[in-house]
């Protein structure tokens, strides 16, 4: 096959000439000698035919009524055209197959990489005790849905079965943020803490247990510490403190800062705390001498600065000619003391008021004070002169 532009021989099937770059057109090869020979033959035939018409040998023929003749061109060039068309069919078939294959792969990938399908494979692998494989599937599922409780819980179980308790604890705690009252997760988590001996974390779980069921579950793994009836902090009067424990264990406590495990008093009822700062430490002891975590609270009690008021006395001072009862009005939380000789009852020797009393005969000086629960007396006492003259 020759290039029409440069005339050089080129291989069949090429679309461009490798020598001059000209686009190759699928036309038969052109041979000058053959073309000249063919032209002469046609001229001779046309001349002979014309002579015969002139001599009356042929009559005119209606060419429109003649059937069409299908002329097929044969030769090396037509074969090349047929071969090229065959190659085109092969190429089109190849690309169609490729496209269908790609579509199939995409559909298959999408159907096998869904969350549900990954979880299905994980459950099957876990049931067959193929924990590493199951962990891979749970991880793939979690990469599709990062908020899935089932995938997180599944990862935790697989780490637990593979004895990777540290990673198991991480996954179980993450799962509890999604389902904070799940007892199964708590059981796995407690077992994991127990395997590594982390009882402090178990006690921390007890402090934040969401309900009594979880708290009872935690108590099976450790001795829970007692709780305090009052939180530590600032108080302005004496308080009564109770220590609470629900499993029947003994409670030991201290108020001097020492360790109750070795120096504690056996708790029997309540603890009275008065003015000042006091740190109460407490611990529970199980029957087998196993102790709970030591817990403590600090209480700072300061009494309010209050001025003891001046007593109110009736009737007022004056001269009376009939027997007259003296009444002292005592506020709640106070007691009253008085004298008739003008001495200060807060210095001792005063009579504690319990009921009204009579004015003494003659002239007398009544001195009255109030006393609070801390032993403080009225800064301004009641002092008055009374005279009783019998008629």
Structure keywords:
elongated, 10 helices, 17 strands, alpha+beta, five-stranded mixed β-sheet, Serine Threonine Protein Phosphatase 5, Tetratricopeptide repeat
Structural write-up:
The strands form five sheets. The protein has a five-stranded mixed β-sheet. Helix 7 runs parallel beside helix 9 (212-219). It is built from ten helices and 17 strands. With 391 residues, it is of the alpha+beta class. Helices cover 38% and strands 19% of the residues. The chain has helices at 32-54, 76-112, 115-127, 131-144, 149-161, 165-178, 183-196, 199-207, 212-219, 260-263; strands spanning 227-228, 233-235, 239-241, 243-244, 250-254, 265-266, 271-273, 276-285, 295-301, 312-314, 318-320, 325-329, 335-339, 351-352, 357-358, 362-371, 382-388. The termini are far apart. The protein has four domains: 1-59, no CATH class; 115-219, Serine Threonine Protein Phosphatase 5, Tetratricopeptide repeat (Alpha Horseshoe), CATH 1.25.40; 227-301, Immunoglobulin-like (Sandwich), CATH 2.60.40.10; 312-388, Immunoglobulins (Immunoglobulin-like).
């Amino acid at each position: 096959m020759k290039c029409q532009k440069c005339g050089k021989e080129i291989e069949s099937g090429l679309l461009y000439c490798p020598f001059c770059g000209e686009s190759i057109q699928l036309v038969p090869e052109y041979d000058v000698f053959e073309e000249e020979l063919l032209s002469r033959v046609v001229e001779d035939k046309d001349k002979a035919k014309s002579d015969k018409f002139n001599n009356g040998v042929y009559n005119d023929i209606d060419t429109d009524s003649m059937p069409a003749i299908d002329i097929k061109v044969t030769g090396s060039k037509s074969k090349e055209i047929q071969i090229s068309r065959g190659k085109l069919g092969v190429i089109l078939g190849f690309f169609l197959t490729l496209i269908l294959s790609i579509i199939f792969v995409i559909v298959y990938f999408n159907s096998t990489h869904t969350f549900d399908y990954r979880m299905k494979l994980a459950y099957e692998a876990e049931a067959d005790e193929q924990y590493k494989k199951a962990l891979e599937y749970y991880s793939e599922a979690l990469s599709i849905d990062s908020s899935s409780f089932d995938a997180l819980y599944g990862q935790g179980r697989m780490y637990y079965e593979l004895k990777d308790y540290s990673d198991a604890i991480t996954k179980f705690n993450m799962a509890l943020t999604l389902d904070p009252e799940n007892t199964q997760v708590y059981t796995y988590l407690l077992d994991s803490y127990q395997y590594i001996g982390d009882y402090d974390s178990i006690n921390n779980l007890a402090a934040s247990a969401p309900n009594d069921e979880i708290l009872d579950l935690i108590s099976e793994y450790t001795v829970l510490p007692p709780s305090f009836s009052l939180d530590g902090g600032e108080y302005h009067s004496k308080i009564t403190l109770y220590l609470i424990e629900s499993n029947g264990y003994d409670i030991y406590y201290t108020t001097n800062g020492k360790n109750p495990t070795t120096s504690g008093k056996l708790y029997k009822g309540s603890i009275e705390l008065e003015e000042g700062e006091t740190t109460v430490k407490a611990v529970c002891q199980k029957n087998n001498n196993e102790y709970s975590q030591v817990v403590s609270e600090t209480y700072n009690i300061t009494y309010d600065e209050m001025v003891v008021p001046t007593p109110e006395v009736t009737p007022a001072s004056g001269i009376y000619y009939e027997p007259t009862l003296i009444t002292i009005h005592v506020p709640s939380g106070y007691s009253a003391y008085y004298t008739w000789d003008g001495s200060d009852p807060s210095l001792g020797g005063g009579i504690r008021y319990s009921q009204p009393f009579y004015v003494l005969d003659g002239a007398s000086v009544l001195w009255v004070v109030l006393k609070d629960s801390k032993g403080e007396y009225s800064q301004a006492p009641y002092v008055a002169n009374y005279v009783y003259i019998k008629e």
